[in-house]
Amino acid sequence: MSKITCLENYVNKDYSHFTSFIIEPLDAGQSLTLGNALRRTLLSELTGTGIAGVRINDLKHEFALVPYLREDLVEVLANLKEIIFKESILIHEKSKHIQNFLLPAYLHAKGPTIVTAGMLNLPKNALIVLNPEQYICTILDSSDFFCELDIQLGKSYQSIEDIQNLNETEELQPGDPNTLRLDVTFSPIKKVNFKVKLIHDSKGNLKESLYLEILTRGNKSPKRCLQEAFKSLIDLIYPLMVDPTFLLIGSELSKKFNESGLTKQVLFKPDDDLKKEQEKERKKKEGKEEVIKQRISDFFDSYLEKTSLKEKISSESELKKKGSEIRKQKNKEKTEIESNKKKKPKNR
């Protein structure tokens, strides 16, 4: 039976979390199959959070000039992308019932000051900023800096065009701020790598061991990511396995046998029905065996009777032959004696 073991586990200064696993023993070829499936699932199927939209003061596009900021708006948006959010389980439960689930967050700062991620106001018991020291921008004068964020829950990577298609079109009014869309990497995975090594088990058989290395951004541990990957693969395969149309699939040969009555195929029936049918089949077999035994015994009895009669007849015929031979032998002896008497001369 295969087992999974943790070989190495540590957290870096940038909050990234690294863990190395080993899965062994596996049969030849299974390591590559399992490693590819887990790697693709980890990179594309795990959920995470990211900033999908930003509204800053009354700016209409990302190339607008902001005189009271040291950085241009493109740099500010790039810094916002580096913020790492850790979500709670409640978000996943709510997002199952709401399409395009968004969480609001806002930031208000008055200059001159340095704006960091720790100054964000987030929904209570929903999100946590893992890197509050993340630099956003610097306000040069006493201007106010207002920033609203749309934090979205999703999978893998979404470009700006994909996010715009998911969200409804916004009608701009004079003086209203426009939402600046950002491409988002929702996946909590930074890097996944696996290696295959040949080993021998206790009996000397050739086996394989799978080394799996997972590096996350820190909002989820590699252990949890691996558990979610296993669950995602099971959710993909199990419905296919129990699909009614799949269960009714049969080969042409089995259909012909079923139509001709040569065989009866039982597929995924309840235990009680299956036991009843097995009991019926057993009784039928027993009845057929008894009939065959009776026929065989009758045949042997009739055969024995016939052979005994033949033996009797043959014995009687042999006795008659022997009796006739004995009578013939006696008659010969008598004739010989009489002939000898006639041949002897008379005494003078």
Describe the structure.
By secondary structure, the protein is an alpha+beta fold. The protein contains eight helices and 14 strands. It has helices at residues 30-44, 73-81, 89-95, 160-166, 222-241, 244-247, 252-260, 271-343, and strands at 3-11, 17-26, 47-56, 85-87, 102-110, 113-116, 127-129, 135-139, 144-155, 157-158, 180-181, 184-185, 189-200, 206-216. A four-stranded antiparallel beta sheet has the order 1-2-14-13. Helix 1 packs across helix 5 (222-241). The longest helix has 73 residues, at 271-343. It is rod-shaped, with a radius of gyration of 48 Å.
Helix and strand topology:
Layout: E1 3-11, E2 17-26, H1 30-44, E3 47-56, H2 73-81, E4 85-87, H3 89-95, E5 102-110, E6 113-116, E7 127-129, E8 135-139, E9 144-155, E10 157-158, H4 160-166, E11 180-181, E12 184-185, E13 189-200, E14 206-216, H5 222-241, H6 244-247, H7 252-260, H8 271-343
Antiparallel strand pairs: 1-2, 2-14, 3-9, 3-11, 4-7, 5-9, 6-8, 10-12, 13-14
Helix pairs in contact: 1-5
Compact description:
Helices cover 41% and strands 27% of the residues. The chain is α+β, with helices and mostly antiparallel strands and 348 residues long. Helix 1 crosses helix 5.
Portion of residues in beta strands equals 25-35%
Percentage of helical residues? 40-55%
Got a strand count?
A: 14
Helices and strands, in order, run as EEHEHEHEEEEEEHEEEEHHHH
Low-confidence stretches: 171-176, 262-269
Biggest β-sheet: count, sense, barrel? 4 strands, antiparallel
From the structure provided, what is the oligomeric state, counting identical versus distinct chains? single chain
Spatial gap, N to C terminus: 127 Å
* Tally of separate helices: 8
Mean pLDDT: 80
Strand order of the largest sheet: 1-2-14-13
Shape: rod-shaped
Rg measurement, Å: 48 Å
Structural class: alpha+beta
